[in-house]
Amino acid sequence: MSTVHGRSNPSSFSQSYRSNSNQSRNTSNSTTSSSFSMSVGSGIRPSGLRPVSSLARPKSSLAKERGTRMANPRPTTSMDTRAENQEGPNNNKQAWDPEEQYSNMERMYEDVCKHYKQAMEDNVEAKEANHAYKSTLAGLEQERKELTENVISLRCELETTKFRLETAERAKTEAQRDNEEEIEDVKREHRIECENIRQAHRQDMERLKSDHRDELRELKKRLEDELEDERTQRLQAISQVSTQGALEKQRHQMDLEAKEQEIRNIGSEIERLKADLAREKTLNDDLRQNLSSAGANATTMENARQALQAKIDYLESDSKSQSEAYAMMEKRMNAALEKATECEEKLRKEEMLRRKLHNQVQELKGNIRVFCRVRPSNGDEAEGTAKFNFPESDDDPKDIEVKGPEETNSLGKVTTKTHQFSFDRVFAPSSNNAEIFEEISQLIQSALDGYNVCIFAYGQTGSGKTFTMSSEDGMIPQALRQIYSTSKELEGRGWSYTMEGSFVEVYNEELRDLLGKDGEHNTKRHEIRHDMATCETTITDVTTLALDSQEQVEGILAQAMSRRSVAATKANERSSRSHSVFILKLTGHNSITGKRCKGTLNLVDLAGSERLTHSQVEGARLKETQNINKSLSCLGDVIGALGQQQQSQQQREQQTGSGGGHIPYRNSKLTYLLQFSLGGNSKTLMFVMVAPEKKCLSETITSLKFADKVSRTRIGVARKTGGR
Predict the structure, then answer these.
(1) Quick one: how far is CA 277 from the chain centroid?
(2) CA 535, CA 654: separation in Å to the nearest integer?
(3) What are phi and psi of 569, to 5 degrees?
(4) Which residues are ATP-binding (predicted)?
(5) 3-class DSSP state of 452
(6) Given 3.40.850.10, 3.30.1140.32, 3.90.700.10, 1.10.287.3510, which CATH number is that of 368-615+677-711?
């Protein structure tokens, strides 16, 4: 028996059958085929067969006879003859002819036999068809029961999946709604926590965060690939199901078992991923925990939905609305992910624009700036304080007036001269270190952006240079705190920084390593080497430490300050006899854009600038003072030469050490060390420190004149170093 398509419409089948049966009955002397072995197409049955819905009993021979009479007229009877006789007398003999009646009866008998034979054949065929359809009906009934059970099971799974998806959607919506508040809260809590936890724990946190981000990116990529493969396989399976026939029905059960095994495998993978997330959960802040959990749940539900979608669409004809709901949910989730990606990309672009605008602002302010700070009076000076005037009354004073010492002219008249100076910013005695650092914090940001920055304090002994640079709230500790804080914030934008620090002093034109081993820091010889291609400076055999925490930096500063060369002079009981230079190298890398930057921050505390007549030193102190004054004089010569070179080149970009006029960097170890931090490749800030006492007035005016000379110098535009 040939196979019949399992999902043919019974009504269309019956109509086709009746059409073929009527055509067969209207054709005389035609033999109807009763074999089920001939091949038929989908939706067509052999002639003479009726569908299952009309299985009863075959038509009787009388019904067959009635159909045949429509094609063959019945034999003439006596009644017909009588009717014909009524039409005319000439037909009387023919109507009652016995031979003709006998012949008609024989023909009628043959027709009856033929019809009887045909009816018997139809009966046999009907019985065979009845038996075949009963077998088919039993198989279809069994298959219907199995499919009904599968539908019930899948409906239960569907309801569970819907509940999980709704839960994930609510969690995701709440996370998105509270996103900004949670970000601020978590950042604030994270900063407070980072100040309190120990160094070892912080290192572990950073390492685990990096591993977790890499693992999340890898997991997301792998799940997206699996989702795409699963979607492609489902589309192929749907296409095959719609085009295959009975053979696909036999393979359907095997496919269901395979998919169920696949669902179990996915469930195992989900459990493993959940375990991984639970292990990492304690090492991340609350915001990333919520976002990661929501993303993992959404991805899990999406995989489960994709695994069941093909079976649901195939088995349930009324699940179109559910499919549309899932498609809408997937669309919303994809839109949210795209929006998050767009926000991250926009944030990266805003960061690049900020860096560009920040650098332009710094260039407009000048790549070499001078700040003046007047130290508060100690209150116990016998000679009193000098008179300072700050003409500007706003919050951003830039001018200072100093009343000079009394002088007697040739006529014997005593006069005093008022000296006026103008700088980028003037800080009155009431200013504190926090206000000063607020002004230089932008230069610290430039170092993070990849520029060379040099900040040095100039002034006589006792004017407050060391207090401004190295005290507990001085420029060096606050600069490092800002660098750590900013680098933490930039981690969310893909930036990671490594910091290396070294601390040296220039004593009698020799370099000393303040972080070296005991007994070696003042005996080893060090050389300065420059890489003209990359504009980088290195010092041979100097101790360079990786700065991983603020506590470590405080310990380094304390060690360096304890080893610095100091001595008593007439000007100060504890006078610094060397120039100290704290060198901080910053290397940044953006894992998202691939960009790199490398900057250097030099924080310099210069020795006292007083003249020999003021310090009144002898012996070894005399040699120290001579070397200090020589190096400070060389510093002034270098800055002056840079200004002259820039003026002669007429705004041509300066490449330090090449082209243009000669810059006397080699005249002093200090200027040679700071070669790449003073020229056109850097941003320079000079602090001129002023003591308010009258006895220091002469040195104060000298320092202010030197600072005024520096403030009038203009050098080239700064360029990044080591960036791509």
Answers:
(1) 19
(2) 12
(3) -135, 175
(4) 459-466
(5) strand
(6) 3.40.850.10
Annotated binding site for ATP: 459-466
Q: Please report, as a single letter, which amino acid is at residue 176.
A: Q
Rounded Cα distance between 275 and 188, Å, is 29
Please identify which residue in the block is written with the tokens 């600072």: 707
* C-alpha–C-alpha distance, residues 274 and 172, integer Å: 17
Which residue ranges make up the annotated binding site?
A: 459-466
pLDDT above 70 coverage of the chain, percent: 64
* Contact call for residues 390 and 399 (beta carbons, < 8 A): yes
Q: Residue 696 contacts by C-beta under 8 Å, 6 or more apart in sequence?
A: 386, 460, 462, 463
CB distance 661 to 648 below 8 Å:
yes
- Which of 312, 294, 292 minimizes the C-alpha distance to 304? 312
Sketch the domain layout of the chain as residue ranges.
Answer: 10-142, 368-615+677-711
Cβ atoms within 10 Å of 698's Cβ, excluding its own: 16
**pLDDT the model gives residue 381:** 53
CA distance 232 to 724: 40
* pLDDT digit string, tens, across residues 322-371: 566 667 777 777 777 777 677 666 666 666 666 666 565 656 565 788 99
Select from 487, 419, 310, 431 the least CA-distant residue to 707: 419
Average pLDDT over residues 684-697: 88
Q: Using H for helix, E for strand and C for coil, what is the string for 596-625?
A: EEEEEEEEEECCCCCCHHHHCCCCHHHHHH
- Tens-digit pLDDT profile for residues 244-270: 656 666 676 677 777 777 777 777 777
pLDDT of residue 277: 61
Please tell me the distance from the alpha carbon of residue 445 to that of residue 269, in angstroms, as a whole number. 45
- Rounded to 5 degrees, φ, ψ at 271 are -60, -40
Phi, psi torsion values for 210, nearest 5 degrees: -65, -45
Q: Which of 562, 530, 494 is nearest to 657 (CA)?
A: 530
Q: Which two tokens stand for residue 542?
A: 């100097």
Residues forming a β-bridge with 261: none
Burial letters for 361-375: b for 16+ Cβ neighbours within 10 Å, e otherwise?
ebeeebbbbbbbbbb
